[in-house]
Amino acid sequence: MRKRPDVAAFLLDPVPKLAVLQAELEDGSYHPGAARAFVIEEPKRRLIAALPFRDRIVQHLLVSAQLPSLERWFAPQSYACRVGKGTRQFTVGVGACARLAS
Question: At 70, is the secondary structure helix, strand, or coil?
Fold first, then answer.
């Protein structure tokens, strides 16, 4: 990711760029940029749309701010992008479900 020119430029001097982004978010002038589309072939052919780096920062801010209030609505078996719900917990959960079903 850091090899991309937009990411390198942002990380070279992040403080003023983050200040501009914060001001845009606060005054309502923020608009997301155009996604970059590309195809990957592994494990299967898929079209990927990648946001510009500054938009990924905003996306992470939104998720970290809103996710705690949404947690109660998620199914207990949902593991994607949740604190304490990684691959290991998924494996343990699947094992428990398998034991209940047998």
Answer: helix
pLDDT band, residue 71 (cuts 50/70/90): confident
Backbone angles phi, psi at 43, to 5 degrees: -80, -15
Task: Looking at the chain, list the stretches that DSSP marks H as alpha helix, in order from N- to C-terminal side.
Answer: 5-12, 14-27, 53-70, 87-101
Hey, which residues does 39 pair with through a beta bridge?
Answer: 47
Q: What angle do CA 76, 64, 30 make, to 5 degrees?
A: 135
**Are the C-beta atoms of residues 58 and 30 closer than 8 Å to each other?**
yes
Q: With contact defined as beta carbons under 8 Å apart, do 6 and 14 qualify?
A: no
- CB-based burial, 9-21: b 16+ in 10 Å, e otherwise: ebeeeeeebeeeb
Q: What is the pTM of this model?
A: 0.69
